[in-house]
């Protein structure tokens, strides 16, 4: 018996892969008169994977099939989504394949995603993969007729509220995504790609400012603090500082606003390009030096250097009534570090909040 995979490591399949499998099954129904309960589909990475098919029905001119997404151990909100495909024959349009987005599939409203404004949020790779699967099983049918394929996701609009789609100008539902068809648990590559895409979208809207935040609480804090900025300005970068900044430089963004808590800001100040907690530890000696610069006594500075957390440094400085000066000095150190890496590229603002999302300090580069 094969060993059970450790929890958190099981791979799954993307919305694009599941949609392609449903489309393939529906076309098989059109061709054969029966929608199969299982289908082997071609993934974008050219492997072939079996999928279970539900709700299969068909007649001579239409077919319907659905695949339930198995996201593996990835916590994405689209896990268990019902990727549904309805196909109609186009009698007078041989070899034509037209893709539409139905209920629960987002609509593109802003440039910058590489998709047509007003069209469905079906990314280029899954779009190509869907069509490849359809053509493999509909070769003879397509010599005489075309196919209209409508993709829908019941509850997709609700799922989309847990994503960044609205920020990217995708309204009304989720996106059909996937570069390989495989979903890797807690995919850092996917998160990094979403950060890059978010910055690119801001630039495409002719916006000159991006607000880079390290998580959900800091994002809510910056949105509340900067209510006049367009939603597309706000990009939750997580730990991916360098990809966000590199992209901002490439696309001509002029003003960088960083929203963060003391721990992540310390990582930035000490020059970390990726600020994940499991990377290099917080440099508490740096925090002790900053504390000394703004007036903390030697005993407090020694305690800060000996502790392992940035939060402790902030708490000690607040007890001394030096919290604001400390946070502003830390923010200045962040800006100095970034200026060394990106000389004469950006104007900076740093917004500091606590663990409840309350504002601690604002630092604006002079």
Describe this structure in words.
The structure is a single chain. Helix 9 runs antiparallel to helix 10. This protein has two domains: 172 residues, 2-Layer Sandwich (CbiD-like); 177 residues, no CATH class. It is of the alpha/beta class and 366 residues long.
What series of H and E elements makes up the topology? EHEEEEEEEEHHEHEEEHEHEHEHHHHHEE
Strands of the widest sheet, in order across it, are 4-5-6-10-7
Characterize the main sheet: 5 strands, mixed
Task: Give the overall form.
Answer: elongated
How many β strands by DSSP? 18
Q: How is the quaternary structure best described?
A: single chain
Helical coverage, percent range: 25-40%
Low-confidence runs (pLDDT<50, min 5 residues)?
none
First and last CA, distance: 66 Å
Number of helices: 12
Based on secondary structure, the structural category is alpha/beta
Mean pLDDT, all residues: 91
As for the number of domains, it is 2
Strand content: 15-25%
Q: Rounded to an integer, what's the Rg over CA atoms?
A: 25 Å
What keywords describe this structure?
about 375 residues, alpha/beta, CbiD-like, 5-stranded mixed sheet, elongated
Q: Nutshell version of this structure?
A:
The protein has 366 residues and is α/β, with parallel strands linked by helices.
Topology:
Blueprint: E1 12-13, H1 15-32, E2 38-42, E3 48-52, E4 54-58, E5 62-68, E6 82-90, E7 97-101, E8 104-105, E9 107-108, H2 124-137, H3 139-144, E10 146-152, H4 156-160, E11 170-171, E12 173-174, E13 182-183, H5 188-204, E14 209-213, H6 216-225, E15 234-236, H7 241-251, E16 255-260, H8 262-269, H9 284-293, H10 298-306, H11 310-319, H12 323-341, E17 347-353, E18 359-364
Parallel strand pairs: 7-10, 8-12, 14-15, 14-16, 16-17
Antiparallel strand pairs: 1-13, 2-3, 4-5, 5-6, 6-10, 9-11, 17-18
């Amino acid at each position: 018996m094969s060993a059970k995979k450790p929890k958190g490591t099981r791979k799954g399949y993307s919305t694009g892969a599941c949609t392609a499998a449903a489309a393939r099954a529906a076309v098989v129904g059109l061709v054969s008169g029966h929608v199969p309960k299982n289908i082997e589909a071609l993934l974008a990475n050219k492997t072939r994977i079996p999928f279970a098919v539900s709700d299969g029905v068909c007649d001579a001119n239409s077919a319907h099939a659905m695949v339930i997404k198995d996201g593996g151990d990835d916590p994405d909100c689209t896990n268990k989504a019902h990727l549904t495909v309805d196909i109609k024959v186009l009698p007078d349009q041989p070899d034509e394949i037209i893709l539409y987005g139905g209920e629960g599939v987002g609509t593109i409203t802003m440039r910058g995603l590489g998709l047509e404004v007003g069209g469905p949020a079906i990314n280029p790779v899954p779009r190509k993969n869907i069509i490849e699967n359809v053509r493999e099983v509909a070769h003879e049918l397509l010599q005489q007729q075309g196919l209209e394929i409508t993709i829908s996701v019941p509850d997709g609009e609700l799922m989309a509220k847990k994503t960044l789609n609205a920020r990217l100008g995708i309204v009304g539902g989720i996106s059909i995504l996937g570069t390989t068809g495989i979903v890797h648990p807690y995919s850092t590559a996917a998160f990094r790609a979403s950060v890059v895409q978010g910055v690119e979208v801001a630039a495409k809207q002719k916006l000159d400012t991006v607000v880079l935040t390290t998580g959900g609480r800091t994002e809510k804090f910056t949105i509340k603090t900067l209510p006049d900025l367009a939603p597309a300005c706000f990009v939750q970068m997580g730990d991916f500082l360098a990809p966000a900044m590199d992209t901002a430089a490439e696309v001509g963004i002029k003003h960088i606003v960083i929203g963060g808590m003391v721990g992540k800001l310390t990582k930035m100040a000490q020059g970390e390009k990726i600020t994940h907690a499991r990377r290099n530890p917080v440099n508490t000696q740096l925090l002790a030096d900053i504390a000394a610069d703004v007036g903390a006594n030697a005993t407090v500075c020694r305690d800060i250097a000996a502790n392992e957390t940035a939060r402790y440094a902030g708490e000690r400085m607040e007890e001394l009534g030096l919290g604001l000066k400390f946070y502003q000095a830390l923010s200045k150190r962040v800006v100095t570090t970034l200026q060394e890496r990106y000389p004469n590229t950006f104007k900076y603002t740093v917004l500091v909040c606590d663990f409840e999302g309350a504002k601690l300090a604002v630092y604006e580069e002079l």
